[in-house]
Amino acid sequence: MQKKTYKTHNLVLISVLVVLVLTGCASGVKVSRIASDAQYDISGSWNDTDINLVTTALIESSLSSQWITQFRVRQGHNPVVIVGSILNKSSEHIDTSILAKKFEIALINTNQVDLVADIGFRDELRQEREGQQYFASEATAVALGKEIGADYLLQGAVRTVVDQVSGKAVRTYYVSAELIDIETSRKVWVGEESVRKLIKQPKYSW
Amino acid sequence: MVTYLRSSIILVLFVVSTTLSCTSTVALTPVTHSYNRADFTEAYERLQDLKTEYVKKQGPLLYALDAGLLAHYDNRWLPSNTYLDEAERRIWERYTESLSGNIASYLINENTRPYQGEDYEDLYTNLFKALNYVHLGDGEGALVELRRFNEKQQMLKQKYDTLYKAMDKTTGGIKSNYSKGISIQFSTSALGNYLQMVLARDTGDIDQAQFAQSNVQQAFKKQPSLYPFFPPRTLEDDLVPPPNNKERVNIVAFTGLGPYKEEVVERVWFSYDNYMKIALPQMVLRPTRVRSIDVHLSDGSKFTLEPIEDMGAIAQEAFHLKRSYIESKTIIRSFLKSTGTEIIDATTASMAREAKDADEAEAIHFFGSLISFASRIFNEASERADTRGSHFFPDRAWVGGITLPRGRYDARVLYRDRNGKIIHEQNLKNLEVTPDNLKLWESVCPL
């Protein structure tokens, strides 16, 4: 009887060990939600943290400058801004439209700036308006020639400077943006923000 | 006695089987056969068929490089970029080496380390990615790749200095004939800067275009051994503003296949029955057969292309110092292995001398010889050069240019050998010349 109990104990112990080993070996994909403001750097490349750092600083700089107030006092209405291109002049593939969109959101949320559709969407809108003249009822078709002309063009660029040796690099991103008075080509605001990163890659690992 | 005998035989068999199993090559004959016939579609598809075996035997990095290049030659720009992105990422990741793999490379051979990619592969990967972006009409994306290409070039010189110092440290001052006076001449790629010049011009960044143009001239001036030909004449006209309704158009062509690695074995005898095997990789050039290239356009105009970069020579140059480092490491490893055999032989002789009787001495001799034999087999079979490398980088790049009225064109690119005989022809169809698009065409000849 006692011998049988030992056998059962051994069997249970072995089964537990096997289960532990097998579960320990499991290597499926693991996904976990992380806070949107948590900073994670995996490869050292441009990431969401950089976007947030840069856009927050640039938007703050733009809104704290006097161009909106001056325009409103002078013209009596909100300035109209069109978002142009933010060029990628760096050595990384960066989706600069995210920067442009963040700028757009921040400006429109002030309620002191009006925005018009950017160049990429304008053609699509114009096609739709023209199409409505033929295919929509007269009562519902929108009128032509009522686009609002923009007063300012927002444009910018991302550049990188890299100083590197094997296994170590200092990568600096310079993100600049500027608002240009379309009528006079005068720059009413220019801002630049940089992000500097030290990226170390170990030579050996286990 | 029976136990000893069994253990010794098992040891010999283990050594033989382990060392023989180290060999892992993949037969790419159907792929190269299609490639040589300029049937890039078939070459790419044959490579895809071999994917599982290839990745298993040669690793995912080499597969990504080969598939990326064949996809490019077959005008599959997006898949090519996906593969080349993967290759670039893997090369970057493999800077961090596994310590266990590295230790194994000191004990067995260099093949125990995952393939890290050659410098020229890392560099030219960005160049072909840039061309993929050009074909996709994404000038900004292409320039991103060429800036990355420039960054890597700047890093090369520093990397070589570090490698040279590491080699000096590893050898503890032991220097072979080969490693004496090694210096790497390559620091600026004329081709990379030329493409940057054309793309910066076409995207309206004239300052950048002029800077890149001066870098092309510097590359020829400062590295005469790597650029033993005159700078292409098109360079003088490429940044001259074209007359009204005309545009400057450029073409880049690639010919031949880059160098491959082969094993060179040398045996240095220690004593009358023991030697040190030194197996080293050597880059062997495969010079292109093409000596001149003419481009005939559908409007009757024609122009010639001139060499701008001997990519094969640059690959060889970049491999120079690395080979020197490998040589130092190989000598140390081989010396240790052969010394091990010497110790086994000496210990066997000493033990046999101290044996109680002739039978025991004979038994010691027998087992000692068996272990010594296993050691020799291990040394001979395990000492293998690392000849891994990608297979489809070209040997030479050519460029040319012409100023054309805006419109659509077809082009016949004729490749001639040294006798002026046409050995390959490629037809490029429906090429658009407008002020807004990128005016860089590409042609490939496998010969």
Task: Summarize this structure briefly.
Chain A is 38% helix and 28% strand. Chain A has helices at 2-25, 48-64, 67-75, 97-108, 119-135, and strands at residues 80-89, 114-116, 152-165, 168-181, 187-200, 204-205.
In words, what does this structure look like?
- The complex is a heterodimer of chains A (206) and B (447).
- Chain A has helices at residues 2-25, 48-64, 67-75, 97-108, 119-135; strands spanning 80-89, 114-116, 152-165, 168-181, 187-200, 204-205.
- In chain A, 38% of the residues lie in helices and 28% in strands.
- Chain B has helices at 2-20, 29-36, 40-49, 51-58, 60-73, 77-93, 99-107, 119-135, 139-171, 190-202, 206-222, 234-237, 311-353, 358-382; strands at 97-98, 246-255, 260-271, 274-284, 292-297, 302-310, 396-405, 407-416, 422-433, 440-445.
- Chain B has a 7-stranded mixed beta sheet. A two-stranded antiparallel sheet of chain B has the order 3-4.
- In chain B, helix 4 (51-58) packs across helix 5 (60-73) and helix 10 packs antiparallel against helix 11.
- The longest helix of chain B has 43 residues, at 311-353.
- Chain A binds chain B through residues 43, 87-93, 160, 162, 164-167, 201-206, and chain B through 92, 95-100, 102, 140-141, 143-144, 147-148, 150-151, 154-155, 158-159, 162.
- Strand 6 (204-205) of chain A pairs parallel with strand 1 (97-98) of chain B, so a sheet runs across the interface.
Percent in strands of chain B: 15-25%
Biggest sheet: strand arrangement of chain A: 2-1-3-4-5
> On the 0-100 scale, what is the average pLDDT of chain A?
87
Q: Which stretches of chain B of 5+ consecutive residues score pLDDT under 50?
A: 177-181
Largest sheet of chain B: 7 strands, mixed
Largest interface: A-B, 20 and 21 residues
Classification by helices and strands of chain B: alpha+beta
Label the overall shape of chain A.
elongated
Please count the beta strands of chain A (DSSP E, at least 2 residues each). 6
**What structural category arises from helix and sheet content of chain A?**
alpha/beta
